[in-house]
Design brief:
The complex is a heterodimer. By secondary structure, chain A is α+β, with helices and mostly antiparallel strands. Chain A is 34% helix and 37% strand. Chain B folds into 3 domains: 177 residues, Thiamin diphosphate (ThDP)-binding fold, Pyr/PP domains (Rossmann fold, 3-Layer(aba) Sandwich), CATH 3.40.50.970; 155 residues, TPP-binding domain (Rossmann fold, 3-Layer(aba) Sandwich); 173 residues, Thiamin diphosphate (ThDP)-binding fold, Pyr/PP domains (Rossmann fold), CATH 3.40.50.970. Chain B starts with a strand and ends in a 23-residue tail after the last strand. The chains are: A alpha+beta, B alpha/beta.
């Protein structure tokens, strides 16, 4: 209690098994902690899955949670890091009606200024993709909002750590 | 273990071979639609593998838990899908929090019906996830050998716990060629941390320098089968040692350095002196809130040395100055040569002085009462006498449990079996059945309150059918006594839903054709207990006890252990 609350990135290397996601999310549920973002993907190691979870917490709690995650049978290793210790990005897609691109000239400036990509353009709609930090995506959202956004989606945070995690070495040892 | 190969057998038959390969000779369960192929194999293999049918799946799992706790082996419980599986959940949660090795096998609807809300379909893997060490759904017969071997390995290794394997019906019917190899390693799972020599040195330095040290040990000593190493450590270091409820019986009650129980209804000395010791050595215990009371005022003056097998327990509730990770049997054996022989006579006398106070204020009145009404404590004392302190005592949850933990005496380990962490009423009767079958040479006495008894009394049917010679003592005060005690102390005696109109328990026991006696006079108590213990058959004893007796000492919920109340 009283400890500083901040954003933490939990990185998990695990087997790719049915139900593990449920098991990990249950650790947060049991402690009444809201998950800000949760992504699962392949990792840099063959046949090893990576989860990246973002939560707001304090250090003593994040240590305990990381240990509880690592205790799960199918989890190989779990780590936690602060924002300063990671390189992180989010991605967003904006679907917008095509006529706006021509009627509202300002949209073209927004696309240029925000370094967004045009993913597709059709007669009815076009889709913009933006990768960056949360404030950049939020700024682009706010700028486009007044012209009408048909659909918007933002991914969870993906992150890599500045320090090496030594996980490949660990797995090599196990597989030898 | 031998490698097993069988050609062209069904999944159901394979399950039996896998269980036999894991040295299972006894399982508890209850049949039903989605597990019928396995039951058909139980029928065929009944000479090699005994299946004991409970009267409710909760009874089956508690029996498996009792079996595991008394034998040190993995208990096995089997149920069908849907309600059969959900009825196991309380026992699974109990096994999880008390680190009991149990493997549960549940039937499931055929794979093609998964997710269709088929008859008796329930997502037991989802439901059991937070309360299992591991679980898995098998949907193809070929998965059976690998998953069952993993299940047993995970349940028993490291910090033990429950594993649930859900097996769809098609996987039980399908034929395949079985090859069984026991699991010895899982790449993502390191059950026992490697002992760190530096941690041992640091711990030994603190222990050797201590002036007023105390040890509190938990079930880790029993699960690690480290009783001998532990006793040697206690004797060599001369350090007074107190126990948690689940650690009870790892060191004989009469041992001169055994100073009693810590926690809410623990002994006066070890609770108060927790806040006076200079070094607190925790061995295989997890600082449960019922042990620590208010953490903000718990052992703050002491350096804490924490031995545990589970890294997630270190600094979870109490910050350790030194943590020693590893299996207690290894860590204790390895620290022994580093420990200087000492005796702490003056410090030990502090415990003795506090014990004298508690004895005069509480213990004498509890076990040798002079008032007319029978007390729970004197019944426990009577059981001690009749069994020469050598029985396995199985308890339920509540006042009788705390009285039994306080007053039952033990000479051997694995002799106190109770629902500690979860506090599961209804645990005792089925767990006592399992305890007796897991340790058939031991006397097993089930001590139960009238409330908890009525939660699983249907298992008298199992006792009757299989003539399991457990001795059942129901301490009947016509109240949910512990809740009533809290209502008396903290809710101004508003006895909401704690008074019970009970049936004639003797008639119920006699309905199951058990020998049954009721005692409500002191003069008949010891002779009836003696008769019960001498009986070779199951025996039911109801003792009508004082209605409004309380358990003291007591650390009120949220208070400091040094504010323990004697009345």
């Amino acid at each position: 209690m009283g400890e500083e609350q901040k954003w933490y990135t939990i990185t998990i290397y695990s087997e790719n098994t049915v139900g593990l996601l449920n098991r990990i999310s249950g650790i947060f549920l049991k402690r009444h902690i809201n998950i800000e973002s949760f992504t699962a993907s392949k990792s840099e190691i063959d046949n090893v899955t990576k989860f990246v979870i973002i939560i707001c917490s304090d250090e003593s709690q994040i240590v305990k949670i990381t240990k509880q995650i690592e205790k799960q049978i199918d989890v190989i290793r779990a780590f936690y890091h602060t924002d300063e210790e990671t390189i992180f990005q989010e991605s967003a897609l904006f679907k917008i009606k095509s006529n706006l691109l021509f009627d509202e000239r300002h949209i073209q400036n927004i696309i240029k200024d925000s370094n967004a990509q045009i993913v597709t353009v059709s007669r009815d709609f076009f889709v913009l993709a933006k990768t960056g930090r949360r404030p950049e995506i939020d700024a682009m959202y706010d700028a486009l909002k007044e012209y009408g956004i048909s659909q918007f989606v933002r991914s969870g945070r993906i992150a890599v750590t500045k320090d090496s995690l030594m996980i490949s070495k660990l797995l090599n040892q196990l597989q030898e | 273990m031998p490698l097993i190969e069988k050609k062209n057998i069904t999944g159901a038959e394979a399950i039996i071979h896998c269980l036999l390969a894991e040295s299972v000779d006894l399982v508890y369960g209850y049949p039903g639609g989605a597990i019928m192929p396995v039951y058909d194999e139980f029928y065929k293999f009944s000479d090699e593998l005994r299946h004991i049918m409970a009267r409710h799946e909760q009874g089956a799992i508690h029996a498996a838990q009792g079996y595991a706790r008394s034998s040190g082996k993995v208990g096995v419980a089997i149920a069908t899908s849907g309600p059969g599986a959900t009825n196991l959940v309380t026992g699974i949660a109990d096994a999880q929090i008390d680190s009991t090795p149990v493997v549960c096998i549940t039937g499931q609807v055929p794979r093609h019906l998964l997710g269709t809300d088929a008859f008796q379909e329930t997502d037991i893997v989802g439901i059991s996830t937070p309360v299992t060490k591991w679980n898995y759904q098998i949907t193809e017969a070929t998965e059976i050998p690998e998953i069952i071997s993993k299940a047993f390995y995970i349940a028993r290794s490291g910090r033990p716990g429950p594993v649930l394997i859900d097996i769809t019906k098609n996987a039980q019917f399908d034929r395949f060629d079985l090859t069984y190899e026991p699991c010895t390693e899982i790449r993502s799972y390191k059950p026992v941390p490697v002992v760190d020599a530096q941690q041992l040195k640091d711990a030994a330095a603190i222990i050797n320098a201590a002036k007023k040290p105390m040890i509190v040990w938990g079930q880790g000593v029993i699960l690690g089968e480290a009783e001998e190493e532990f006793k040697t450590l206690v004797e060599k270091s001369g350090i007074p040692a107190a126990w948690t409820v689940l650690g009870l019986s790892a060191l004989p009650t009469a041992h001169p350095l055994n100073v009693g129980m810590v926690g809410m209804h623990g002994n006066y000395g070890p609770n108060v002196l927790t806040n006076e010791c200079d070094v607190f050595i925790a061995i295989g215990m997890r600082f449960d809130d019922r042990v620590t009371g208010n953490l903000a005022t718990y052992a703050k003056q002491a350096k804490v040395v924490h031995f545990d097998i589970d890294p997630s327990e270190i600094n979870k509730n109490v910050t350790a100055d030194v943590a020693v990770l590893g299996d207690a049997k290894e860590t204790l054996a390895q620290i022994l040569p580093l420990i200087e022989p000492k005796s702490h006579i003056e410090w030990l006398s502090e415990f003795e002085k506090k014990y004298e106070i508690e004895k005069n204020e509480i213990i004498e009145k509890a076990i040798r009462p002079t008032k007319e009404g029978l007390t729970m404590g004197e019944v426990i004392e009577g059981i001690n006498k009749a069994t020469k302190d050598d029985a396995i005592i199985v308890t339920d949850v509540g006042q009788h449990q705390m009285k039994a933990c306080r007053y039952a005496k033990f000479t051997r380990s694995k002799s106190n079996i109770t629902s500690g962490g979860l506090g599961t009423m209804g645990f005792c009767l089925p767990a006592a059945i399992g305890a007796k079958m897991g340790a058939p040479d031991r006397e097993v006495v089930a001590v139960i309150g009238d409330g908890g008894f009525q939660m699983t009394l249907q298992e008298l049917g199992l006792i009757f059918q299989h003539q399991v010679p457990v001795k059942i003592v129901v301490l009947n005060n016509n109240f949910l006594g512990m809740v009533r005690q809290w209502q008396q102390l903290f809710f101004e005696k508003r006895y909401a839903s704690t008074e019970m109109t009970n049936p004639d328990f003797i008639k119920i026991a006699e309905g199951y054709q058990l020998k049954a006696q009721r005692v409500n006079k002191r003069k008949n108590l010891q002779s009836t207990i003696d008769e019960m213990i001498q009986s070779k058959e199951p025996y039911f004893l109801e003792v009508v006890v004082e209605q409004e007796e309380n358990v003291f000492p007591m650390v009120p919920s949220g208070a400091s252990v040094s504010d323990i109340r004697l009345k």
